[in-house]
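pinging the channel bc i need a second pair of eyes. not urgent but kinda urgent?? the chain im working w is below, pasted from the shared doc
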Amino acid sequence: MTETSRPSLSCGEVGFLTVRNVNRVGAFLKWDEQKDLLLPFGEQTRSVQSGERVLVAVFQDEAGRFAATMNVYPYLRTDSPYHTDDQVHGTVYETSENFGTFVAVDDRYSALIPRKELVTPLAVGTQIEARVLAVRPDGKLTLSLRDKSWKQMAADADILLARLQAENGFLPLTDKSDPDRIREMLHMSKSQFKRAVGRLYKERRIALEDQGIRLI
C-alpha cells in the first residue's frame, strides 16, 4: 500500500470519516483513495447521509474484515494529558437520560458531561468547548459546559439582565418557578438563575415582586 493510499484510520483508532454513499447493507465511508469502509446499519447509533462526516472507530469483524462502528466508547483512550479546569474540545457521540452526554475529547479521550451539568440537550455530532471538572481514577474525564462558579455567575447575570431589557423590564420568574420554565426562558439551571438574581439584587439593579423580577 502506498503512502498516498494509506488508510486515514488504523484498526482500533477513532476519528472522522466521510460518508460516500448509503445502500441496503449500510454506509460506505471514505477510508483511503482506493477503498471504502463499511459502516453497517447495526453499528450506527443514528442514520447517516452521503457527504456527512461521522465519528467512528475501525475494528475487525468475526471474519477478519475491517469495518466501522459509531459505538466508539470502547475505543476511546483514558490517558489524556488534561487536568482539572483545563479547557478541552470534543465531539458528542452518545446521550443518556441516566448518565448525561458522552463526549470524545480531541476525538480520542473518554469524557462525560453529567446530567446536572446540562442545561439544554446536545445532539450527537455536536462540537463543544468544555471545562474539565475532574479526572476520574480510571482516567476518564468529567466535563462541564459552565465556567467556574464566580465567572459563570457574572455571565448568567448578564444573560438575565439582557433578557429583562428585551422583555420591557419584567420577567414572570421567581425562586418558586418550575426549573423547566427557567431553562426554557433563560437556558440556565434554577440554581444558576437564583445566583444571578441574587447578584443583580445586591447590585440594586432589579426588584423582586410576587409575580416576577422587575428591572430598576
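so The chain has a mean pLDDT of 89. and DSSP finds three helices and 13 strands in the chain. — does that match what u expected or am i reading it wrong
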